[in-house]
Amino acid sequence: MKIGNIIYSFEKWAVIVLLAFTVTLSFMQVILRYFFNAGFAWVPEIVVFAFISMTLLGASTGIKNGVHIGVDVIVKLLPLKFQKFSEIFTNLSGAALFLFMSYLTYKFVMYFREMGQLSIITEIPIWMMISYMPVAFLFMAFHYTELLCESCRKDKEDFRTFKKDLI
Description:
- This protein has one domain (2-166).
- It is built from six helices and no strands.
- The protein has helices at residues 2-36, 43-65, 73-77, 80-115, 126-129, 132-166.
- α1 packs antiparallel against α2 (43-65), α2 (43-65) packs parallel to α6 (132-166) and α4 runs antiparallel to α6 (132-166).
- The protein is elongated and about 70 Å long.
């Protein structure tokens, strides 16, 4: 899917930029504190939010690449038909879970927006600082949906091949 590749490229570049940003800010803060006995109060807060967003985007790219840890010992013992069912069920469950998480975090962001709470140090509205959460979970749901479509398409092709072999 073309949109999937665009999202994936965005996630990769966002992770790279956020990593460079957090490392640069942290390094600058260390130099300022230890050599000049000074520093910025806002750096730790910004670095934490950047690191959390980088983690969520990295988790989303992990779904796309299929590198998340999976316990498939029991699944490998099942017949091939049930293994395919398990793959479809896993992808469907992942998509549903992350769609739900996206909805919950959206409600969470809107709650903070309604409350009007500001960050203590930077005085940036909290809802702006956490607005990446629903988007990251939506990306994860999208990647699971891609995997689900791929599994179903692969199963359809396997079924056609099996049907031809019978005839």
